[in-house]
Design a protein that fits this description.
The structure is a single chain. This protein is of the alpha+beta class. The protein folds into two domains: 4-57 and 261-411, no CATH class; 74-224, no CATH class. Helices cover 54% and strands 20% of the residues. The chain has 15 helices and ten strands. It has a six-stranded mixed beta barrel with strand order 2-3-8-5-7-6. Strand 2 (91-106) and strand 3 form a beta hairpin. Helix 12 packs antiparallel against helix 14 (396-403). The chain is elongated and about 105 Å long. The two termini are 32 Å apart.
């Protein structure tokens, strides 16, 4: 596409000359602008990917990749179904659960709560509840013991500690000679967990599934919670499982249960990409300014080249090469800086926090107090391509203007 003399002259014009230091300075700022824009894009998108990954891990640590629910109120014969589900090669864990809502009462404190009945031996197969325990042990949830495990925020609101009694009020009622009375039962707090998500820490209570059956007068679990070997394929895997199960069952995967939340994250990431891309666009405008001034400064050189036989197309390519070099060097600096910063942000930020003595994301306010980073090479490639296209487009107008230069007009006053 380019002849050797076009590339040679284009490279030479990028370097500083005695009479065009200002233009070379603008070229340098254009490179730095492109580099900073690319570096900012890579770093910010990596941090947003890190937050998204952290949120997914925390949400799916207590939720489930998918849930199988029976056609009726309860899944009474759940063991054969669990065995059938485990035959699928992409399923790594299955556990039954019971879901209900109620109120927890301690003295004058009353809080609505989501009750999850579990089997302590089966639950670790589908959740990370054991890793999130900060006090007590989930194994203390024994059938008939009427023990309970609460989220940290929920325990704080109720003002309870390990060993305290709390009263669980079920929405069902008992008809007695004294009238209709709510069903309630005193539970002993045996554990506290902290997931780092307000949805769970402030509202979730875990009890043994058999105790939940007795309190809520049920005979079987609500459904089965599934854990897959790939959360991104959970929708496909869960539907394959339901298709092979005998009878009528419903499946809900994590993308449906938390669709709005993750859609908002994706939208935010897209908007941030567009906003930060404006930095690269501004740098591209600087390239236009650099080349326009270079064309004005090199009118006589262009005329001489045309006189020596250079075609307008060669002049066009010459200045496009110059602008492209500015963009490519800037992109290269930005990619190197962005990859390094994204790979070390989890080390750099704590170092800065220790230097200034202040926490950027206070644990008292934010559930994610560290700045996570998860760099994706496809993001880096996309950013580099988009930045290159912008820089290439920025060279077209000045190069066309140079190609239209008439030798006689340019040399008239020389």
């Amino acid at each position: 596409m380019f002849n050797s003399f076009e590339a040679l002259i284009g490279l030479r014009y990028v370097r500083a000359r005695r009479r065009n230091h200002f233009i070379s300075f603008i070229s340098l700022t254009s490179m730095l602008g492109v580099g900073l824009g690319v570096m900012a894009l890579i770093t910010v998108l990596s941090v947003m990917n890190g937050f998204e990954k952290e949120l997914k891990e925390r949400i799916l640590g207590m939720a489930s990749h998918a849930t199988v629910i029976g056609d009726g109120d309860a899944l009474n014969d759940w063991q054969p179904i669990a065995e059938e589900v485990m035959h699928h090669p992409d399923i790594v864990g299955v556990a039954p659960y019971f879901h209900a809502e109620g109120m927890l009462v301690k003295d004058k404190s009353v809080n609505g709560t989501i009750i999850r009945g579990i089997l302590p031996d089966e639950e670790p197969k589908v959740s990370t509840v054991i890793e999130t325990m900060i006090m007590g042990d989930i194994s203390e949830l024994k059938a008939g013991g009427f023990n309970i495990v609460l989220g940290k925020e929920l325990a704080r609101k109720l003002g309870v500690a390990i060993g305290d009694k709390v009263t669980l009020v079920a929405p069902q009622a008992n008809v007695t000679p004294a009238g209709i009375l709510p069903r309630l039962k005193r539970f002993t707090l045996v554990g506290i967990f902290e997931v780092g998500m307000h949805e769970f820490d402030s509202a979730l209570a875990l009890i043994h599934m058999n105790d939940a059956f007795r309190l809520f007068r049920k005979t079987g679990p609500t459904g089965l919670r599934l854990k897959t070997n790939n959360i991104l394929k959970a929708p496909i895997i869960s539907r394959e499982i339901v298709a092979q199960l005998p009878g009528r069952y419903w499946v809900v995967d994590w993308t449906q249960r938390h669709a709005n939340f993750f859609r908002a994250l994706k939208t935010e990431k897209t908007v941030m990409f567009v906003i930060l891309l404006l930095i690269v666009a501004v740098a591209a405008f600087n390239i236009i300014s650099t080349l326009v001034m270079m064309v004005s400064d090199k009118q006589s050189d262009i005329a001489v080249l045309r006189t020596l036989g250079a075609s307008p197309g060669s002049i066009l390519k010459l200045f496009m090469i110059q602008g492209t070099i500015i963009g490519v060097v800037g992109i290269a600096m930005g990619v190197i800086g962005g990859v390094w910063l994204a790979s070390n942000v989890e080390t750099i930020v704590p170092a800065i926090e220790s230097m200034i003595g202040q926490k950027f994301l206070s644990a008292d306010v934010y559930y994610i107090s560290d700045l996570p980073s998860d760099m994706h090479w496809n993001d880096v490639i996309t950013i580099s391509i988009v930045a290159f296209v912008l820089c290439l487009l920025a060279t077209i107008y000045p190069a066309l203007r140079a190609a239209k230069t008439q030798p006689a007009e340019a040399l008239r006053y020389e």
